[in-house]
Design a protein that fits this description.
It holds the Pfam family TerB. This is Co-chaperone DjlA N-terminal domain-containing protein. With 215 residues, the protein is an alpha+beta fold. It has 2 domains: 86 residues, no CATH class; 120 residues, no CATH class. Helices cover 47% and strands 20% of the residues. The chain has a 6-stranded antiparallel sheet. α4 packs parallel to α8 and α5 runs antiparallel to α8.
């Protein structure tokens, strides 16, 4: 699932210097290119390309002490407010792609779960659609476009393992919302399949184990 083009790594308007404090209280300067902002239960989370590490990194907005915008030269000492009003979060160029990028791992797992009994039913497709809407309530989405994009999601084993790794190890996504939607999806077609229940239990167990190990 592609990241929207307005979040390209080379977009100079999205390059920032972040004064950041990590979980152990150590402060550092990070030069990043902003790729996505998620509004999570724990606050805003920034997904960025870190220029020093040459890799993708996540940053919690409440740990950012100061933001310097390279493109404008402005300095912001209220990062939470700045990113809460950022156009990438409030008005992305391609809101449907942005929505799917925000919860791509959850969508992959829900799609695999829906197909666990051999067929993805219409009611199960609706539940996945509702999950996306629930995850990004601040976005105005074109339902037709979103449906067409969801219909093209065909996750494989690699996508499943990536979803489990990212959600379990890096808290990428909303596991609570995922579990809630999984329960509703299993009941969506009016038939509770043993394969779906077993698959949902596996996901739950692996995410709980990952969370315990990470803690």
């Amino acid at each position: 699932m592609a990241v929207p083009d307005n979040q390209a790594q080379g977009d100079a308007s999205l390059v920032y210097h972040l004064t950041y404090t990590d979980s152990e209280g150590r402060e550092s300067l990070r030069v990043v290119t902003l790729r996505r902002i998620d509004a999570t239960r724990d606050g805003l989370k920034l997904f960025c390309w870190c220029h020093a590490a040459s890799a993708n990194r996540q940053f919690k907005a409440d740990r950012i002490r100061e933001v310097f915008c390279v493109a404008t030269g402005e300095v912001f000492d209220a990062p939470g407010n700045y990113f809460a009003e950022h156009p990438m979060l409030t008005a992305p160029r391609d809101p449907e792609a942005y929505a799917l990028a925000t919860c791509r791992h959850e969508v992959n797992l829900l799609t695999i779960l829906a197909a666990a009994d051999g067929e993805v039913h219409e009611d199960e497709q609706e539940r996945i659609l509702v999950h996306v809407y629930d995850r990004v309530p601040h976005l105005v989405l074109d339902e037709g476009k979103l449906r067409r994009r969801l219909s093209k999601v065909v996750p494989d084993v690699a996508a499943f393992e990536a979803a489990m790794w990212r959600m379990g190890r890096f808290r990428d996504g909303d596991s609570v919302a995922l579990m809630r939607s999984m329960r509703k999806l299993i009941d969506a077609d009016g038939h509770v399949a043993a394969a779906e229940i077993a698959f949902a239990e596996e996901i739950n167990a692996r995410l709980n184990l990952s969370a315990s190990s990470a803690g």
